[in-house]
Design brief:
- The complex is a heterodimer of chains A (379) and B (234).
- Chain A has 13 helices and 13 strands.
- With 379 residues, chain A is an alpha/beta fold.
- In chain A, helix 7 links the parallel strand 9 and strand 10.
- Chain B is α/β, with parallel strands linked by helices.
- In chain B, strands 1, 2, 3, 4, 5, 6 and 7 form a seven-stranded mixed β-sheet that branches.
- The longest helix of chain B is centred in the last third of the chain and has 18 residues.
- Classes of the chains: A alpha/beta (379), B alpha/beta (234).
């Protein structure tokens, strides 16, 4: 039972190392990522989350395949996604793939849903990007039913109807994988997460904290509105991004060329501006501890902290060193500091075992969506 | 406040022009209070003729609003935000200074949008600033369009470039746009009349605006949104 989970998430980019002008092969980068995931467990981290993309320079098009392989090679690591595309994947296949993964991994699985940020993926998969939100809403409504109901009859706007369909394998122990809904700016997704009593994950990398404070504050308030508990009992996850060396200036000097050339923010703001405006922290382990121990003051006590550690062409050796520092020096202190004064009502991070126990303890009629609310929500 | 004259000093960039001051004798106390006028100047040189034109237009709006209403004028000089605008294009979010400017513009009661004409159209910096604003955020905003250029030959850029841009954004564009060529600054009349006419048009729109009620909350759900889309999970 852990109050908070710490881990890493990766977008699976294959990017040139700007300091050596070399790029690892796709085959090598895939092997490197597996090494990184295994090392995350070795240094005591809890979660490894993998992105989904369908275009170069990213390799991770089939996350459950990769995560199943990792499940066999690890024993405690919780395997997740960042994110699984709820818009362009068939919800039936998501239900099947993640239930299967759940069985293979002995319950060490959850997933984070997102809409994706690459426009052409929609037409490549036969969808219309202008329907992004409606797809996310309808597809998840079906996914939920496929996991929660044995036999599903269903008709929707975007998919072939289902009559008498049973998704197999059934969720492990009758409890579906926990779902996080990821969003950078859409209040609709925060509303959706709150309605179902699911987790809400704020990527927290690209925008200033004030923006995510509003989004998370909204999700917490709506979680309470829908009767899942108090606002403080909502399940919140945060992204983050760090680079550390024992001497702060060494971290800045080493990371700067990777920052300056990074695909997402390179050639834009200075490292100094970006670290001031976003949670990116480049410096000593103590600076990282101070910054991330303060997150709960901004967002409330939360359940999961994921760090982006392996992007922008950073070499494998450097990433593994970063994980050593993160797992060895930073996370143990953060666990202590975030446990201190944690209110009793702040829930522990969701795990399969805890959710199975909770389901067994709950009277059957209150297990699912006890918040029977009118379907329509006026703005 | 006293109506600014043609000799009044320039408005402070990035600041709010002090509202206050004395009211003309015989005038009535402003029942409608104040209106917030934001002036965006895309001029790149300093001093800039675009800024000069924008200031004249702001003064004309103030004169037209007086005495019932006073205008709090805020100037946004895009030159000062050039780096932030580029950063926003690359990262997807505004830095603090740019964020403040966007908040100010999108919550205004009226705006003067002034750009130099470069290569047949608004300047790239001006358009980049527009590009980092939420496309719904200027809906219903009364806007006066203005531009400067070396010769009169590009004056139609106001009507084939600036006006469609703000029409697309659902702003309410005053019928008169003001173009000032270099030569206009030495002519006896014409420019001054156009400035007065445009200023009174924007003032009329600002008197009537319900902008306050229309400022959009970016975190508001669309009307009728359902978290289950009508396909209940029950």
């Amino acid at each position: 039972m852990s109050q908070m989970q710490f881990g890493i998430f990766t977008v699976s980019d294959i990017t040139e190392d700007p300091t050596t002008r070399t790029t690892v092969s796709e085959a090598q980068r895939i092997q490197d990522t597996l090494t990184i995931a295994r090392h995350a467990e070795e240094v005591g981290l809890d979660v490894f989350a993998l992105g989904e993309h369908h275009n170069p320079p990213f390799w991770s098009s089939s996350p459950t395949t990769t995560l199943a392989y990792l499940a066999a090679q690890t024993s405690t690591l919780l395997l997740s996604t960042a994110t699984t595309l709820i818009t362009t994947n068939d919800p039936v296949k998501i239900a099947e793939d993640f239930s299967m993964l759940q069985h293979l991994a002995g319950g060490r699985v959850d997933l984070m849903l997102g809409r994706g940020n690459t426009g052409p993926v929609y037409p490549w998969f036969g969808k219309d990007i202008r329907q992004g939100i409606p797809l996310a809403i309808e597809n998840y409504a079906l996914l939920r039913r496929l996991w929660d109901e044995e036999v599903v009859d269903w008709t929707g706007q975007f998919r072939t109807p289902l009559q008498g369909f049973t998704s197999t394998p059934r969720p492990l122990d009758g409890v579906a994988p926990f779902v996080w809904h990821g969003s950078i700016r859409s209040p609709e997704i925060a509303e959706q997460a709150a309605y179902y009593g699911d987790g809400f994950f704020a990527n927290n990398i690209f925008w200033p904290a004030s923006h995510y404070q509003q989004l998370i504050g909204y999700y917490r308030q709506r979680f309470e509105h829908y009767g899942h508990g108090t606002a403080a009992q909502a399940i919140v996850g945060l992204g983050g991004q760090v680079f550390m060396r024992s001497k702060s200036q060494d971290a800045v000097d080493e990371f700067r060329p990777y920052f300056d050339n990074a695909p997402v923010y390179g050639h834009g703001p200075s490292l100094e501006d970006f670290t001031a405006q976003t949670p990116l922290t480049v410096g000593s382990p103590q600076q990282v501890i101070d910054r991330y121990a303060g997150m709960r003051n901004l967002f409330g006590d939360y359940q999961r902290q994921l760090f982006l550690m392996d992007h922008a062409g950073l070499p494998l050796k450097t990433v593994l060193e970063q994980l050593d520092i993160l797992g060895g020096e930073v996370v143990p202190v953060l666990r202590r500091e975030l446990a201190a004064n944690r209110p009793a009502e702040a829930p522990d991070a969701p795990t399969h075992a805890a959710r199975v126990a909770a389901a067994a303890a709950a009277p059957p009629e209150t297990q699912e969506n006890s918040a029977a609310e009118p379907m329509e929500v006026a703005s | 406040m006293s109506a600014p004259t043609d000799n009044s000093p320039e408005f402070p960039a990035g600041g709010t022009f002090p509202a206050g001051g004395t009211f003309p004798a015989g005038g009535t106390f402003p029942a409608g209070g104040t209106r917030r006028l934001v002036v965006v100047s895309g001029g790149l040189s300093q001093p800039s003729s675009t800024r000069l034109l924008a200031d004249r237009l702001a003064q004309a709006v103030q004169r037209s609003l007086a005495p019932e209403l006073t205008a709090d004028v805020e100037i946004i000089e895009l030159r000062e935000l050039a780096q932030d605008i580029t950063n926003n294009l690359l990262t997807g979010f505004p830095g603090p200074r740019l964020d403040a400017a966007i908040q100010s513009l999108t919550s205004a009661d009226g705006a003067i949008m002034a750009t130099p004409i470069f290569t047949t159209s608004y300047s790239g910096l001006f358009k980049s600033f527009i590009d980092v604003i939420d496309p719904d955020a200027l809906t219903g905003l009364p806007v006066l369009i203005a531009a400067t250029g070396g010769t009169e030959r590009h004056s139609l850029a106001l009507d084939y470039a600036m006006r469609p841009l703000f029409t697309y954004l659902h702003a309410i564009v005053a019928p008169t746009g003001v173009y000032a060529a270099s030569g206009d600054w030495g002519a006896d009349a014409g420019l001054v009349d156009r400035i007065d006419r445009a200023g009174s048009e924007l003032a009329a729109l600002m008197r009537a605006t319900d902008r306050d009620a229309r400022v959009r909350d970016p975190f508001a759900l669309p009307a009728g949104f359902s978290p289950v889309g009508g396909f209940g999970a029950q």
